[in-house]
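Question (not urgent): is this output format expected?
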Amino acid sequence: MSDNYRSREERRRAMNDNKPEGKSQGKPKKKKKGGLFRKIVAAVLLIGIIGLIAGVGTFFAMISDAPKVDDSVLKNSFSSKVYANDGKTVVKEIGAQKRTYVQYDEIPQVVKNAFIATEDVRFYKHHGVDFYRIGGALMANFKNGFGAEGGSTITQQVVKNSFLSPKKTVKRKVQEMWLAYQLERKYSKQQILEMYLNKIYFASGEVYGIERAAEKFYGVKSVKDLTLDEAAMLAGLPKAPTTYNPVTNPENATKRRNTVLNLMAKNGFITQAEADKAKQVDVQAHLAKQTESTSKYDVFIDQVIEEVKKKTDADPFSAGLEIYTTLDTDAQDYVDDVMNNKVVNFPNDKFQTGLVVVDNETGGIQAIGGGRNRVSGGLNFATNMRRQPGSTIKPILDYGPAIENLKWSTGQPIKDEEYHYSNGTPIRNFGRNYKGWVSAREALGRSLNIPALKAFQATGADKAKEFATGLGLKLDEEDGEAYSESYSIGGFRTGVTPLQMAGAYSAFANEGVYNAPHTVTKVKFPDGTEIDLTPKSKRAMQDYTAFMMTDMMKSVVNESYGTARAVRTPGLEIAGKTGTSNFSADEKKRYNIPDAGEKDVWFNGFTPNYTISVWTGYETAKDGYILSASETGMAKNIFKHVITHISEGKPKGSFKQPDSVVERSVEKPTGKDLKRPSGSTPSSLITKEYFVRGTAPTKVSQTFVKKEKEKEKEKEEKKEDKKEDKKDNKDVKPKITASYSGGAISVNWSASNAASDTTFTVTMSSPSGSEQLASGAGAGGKTISSPAPGATYSFTVTTNTGESASSSVKVPDSSDQATEDDSTKPEDDGTTDNNQNEDNSNTDQNNGSDQGDDSSTQPDDNQNSNNGNNNGGNNSGNTDNNNNDSGNANNGNSGNNNNNGGTTTPPADNGGSDSGSQTPSTPATPSTPSTPATPATPQQEPTTEN
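Got this back:
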C-alpha cells in the first residue's frame, strides 16, 4: 500500500507538474499583484514625504535670512544717494522730505476702491498671498518666461518696497510671500492699505504718497476732495508714472484712467453709468498749474528715478539705495546754461528745445536738456515729448537698411524725378524740383525725399522695421499702426524723442553696435545687494553699414550741397542729419500759420565720441511756429556749441574704415549703373565712393571714350579741311600797288585765285616807322594823306596762306608837290568830296558825351562828320583821323557807337577809305579851304529807356 500510495502520490505530483502554468499559478499571481500595488503606493508616499521634507527644508532655508518685519522701516523712509559718473560725487540725495502722511480714516472710500480694484481686488479675502492670482501669473510665466507677470498683492508690494531687493528670483519671491504672511498677522488690512497708499510713487519731482499726489496733480488741500475720475487717474499712475502722466501724456493717461473705471465697475465698486460719466471728463480738465521750479540736475535725476523703478521695482525715495549714474556734471552744467539763455539767444520765451548727449561706446547719457523754463514734473522735451523726426529718419529707415540688406554703395545711383507713393499720392522734394540721377550720398546730403522713398521701397517695409527695431525704435508698436511708405520721410502719427534718436544714431558711430541709452549703471541696496543695470550691447548692423552711413552723413556737413554746413567745427570729425516737419492743413488754417512755417526742426549729429540729438520747436501749434533763419538754424547752433564744449581737452578720435569696405573711383551717376572712369573721363566727373568688399564696379565707362573718339575724328576732319584749303590757296598770288597823286598816296591790294576765306594783312614803312594799315578778307585800298615830301613809303601785303607782295612810292619834294596841286585844283562849287574833310568843316561831333541820359538831336555838321551822339552817358566812338590835316576824314575807323542802355550799335558805312569802296585809280580832290561845308538836315535820334 505504501508502495502504491507512494506511487499514486508520485503520479499526482507528476500530474500536477504537468498542469498548465496559468491554471496552477493563477491565485498566487493575484497575491503578487496586490503586493506590487502596495509597494507603488508606499513608494509614492515615501517620495511625497521626502519631497515635503525637502520642500519644507528648502522653504525654511530660503526664509532663514529673510529680514524681520520692522515697524520703523514700514512707516519711515530712507533716502537714496545719487552718484555722478565718477562714482564718488553725490549729486543729490532723494528721500522723504516731501512726504505728507495721511491716516486711513482720512482717505475717502472712492480712492481706496480705485486702488483695490486696480492692484488687488481680493485684498480683503486673502492672508497676504492670493493663490488664485498666483495661478494666473504662473500660466503667464510659463508662456512668456519667469518674471513676465507678477501675482503680488498689495501686502506683498509693501513688503517688497520696504524690506527686499527687486531681484526676480525664486528665493526673493518665497521671502516676499513669507513676510507678507507675517505682515498680515501683525497688522490689520486697514493699516497695510494705509502703509501702501503713503509709500507709493506717483511722478517725478519726488511725488509719492496719495496726499502729495492729490496736491501735485489737482491742487486740492486734502485727498478727501478727489472726485471719482481723479481717484481713478491716480490709481492708474503707479504702474508706469511717466507713461500715464496726465500732464505730459494725456492720451495714454486717458486710456489708463478708463481702464481703472472699468475695473471698478466690473468688481461692483461703482455702477457702469458712473464709470461712463467719469470717462467723459477731460483728463486734463482739473489739473493744477505746475509752478514748482526744478533744482539742479532734476531733469537728469527724473530719468534716473524712472529707470530704477522700471528695472528694479524699488522705490528710490524710501529704499535707501545707492544709485550710480552716467551723469557728466560739466556737460550737464553747460547744457543747463544753454537752456537758460546763457549760450544761445532764443527768439522768445515759448520757443522750446530738448536734447540728449550720449557716450557712443557705452550708451551712457552724459547730459539731458529737458526744456526751457521747466517746472518740476512738467513735460520733458528730451525724454517724453514725441514729434515727427522729418528727414532725420532717412538713415534709419531708408539708406541704412539698403546698405545692410542690398549692399548699396555710397554712390548708388538713384533717379530724382517726378514720383508718387504706391497708392498714387504724389511725393515732392522740399524745393519742388528734381536733380535727375544722383548718388545716395548726394541724395541724403541734399535731403531729397524721392530718392529716400525709392530706397525704402527697394528694401521693403519689413526690413526697414527690423533695422529700426535693432536701434531701439519700435515705431509701429508705439504708434499703433503698420509701417507705411510715408515713414520713409518721417511721416509718423506720433513720433520719436531726442532720447531715442540719440541712441539710434550712436550705433552708427559705434561701428554698428547698439547700446540702449541709460542713466544708471548699478544700484546698491541696504543689505549689500548690488544690481548691474548697464544694458547689454548688441550688434544692430554690419560694420560696413555703420561706416558707409557715417561717411554719407559726413557729406551732409562737409559738402557744398550739405544741409548742415553750419555745424562744421575745426578739429572735429562730425556726421549728422537735419530734419524738419510741417503743420497739418487744419493747424495752418486754425492758427493762421504761413506755408513756410515749420513745426519741428531737428539735428542729430555725432563725433567718434559723442552723439547729440537736438529738437527745437513749440509745445503746441498755438504757441508759435518756426520761420526765420535764426529759428531754423537753432538746432544746429545748439549742437555746435555743446559738441565743442564737451570735446574740449579730450581725444577727438576718427571714424575707422573696416576691412569689409573698399574705396573706389567712379564716374558720377548718369544712369542706373556705376562704372569706373576711363582715361577720357573729365576729372570733374570722377568721384570716390565706398563699397562693400566684393561689390565694387569692374566695368570701365565708355561714355567719354566715345566722345573722345568723336572729338578726334572731328579734329582729323578739320585737319583735312585745312589741308584742302591750303592746297586750294597755294596758287594765290597777291598784288599791291602804290601811287602818289594830289598830295596823297593811294594803296590798293588784291590777289589772283583768291578764295572766299583768303585774308590780307597790309603794312606800311615810312620815315616815322612801321605800322599795320589793314587786315581782313577781300581786296581793298587805303589813302595816305599828307605824306612827308621827299620820303619813300613801302607797302607789303601778306595772305593767310603765306604769300606776299610789296610796292613802294617816293613822294616828290615841296616844289614839285605845289606845282602838281595847283594843276589839279578844281573849282569851288560849295560841295565837299565824300573822302575830303577840312579842319573847319569835318568836326568830330561827340555830342552827349558825359552828359547823362541826353536824348536831344544833334545836327550832322558834315556828311563825313563822326556824330557820336550818346544817350545814357555812354561814350561814342571817336574819329580816327590818321593825320587828317588836309581834310580827308577816315570815317571807316570812326565807328558811330550810339550806345543806348548798354546796347552797342555798329558804325554806319560813310564811305571812308577803310571800307575799301574807293576806286584805286582816281585820286582824291581836296576842297577849297575857305568854303564851309554845307550842313545836313537835322535828324531826330531815337530815345531808349535804360
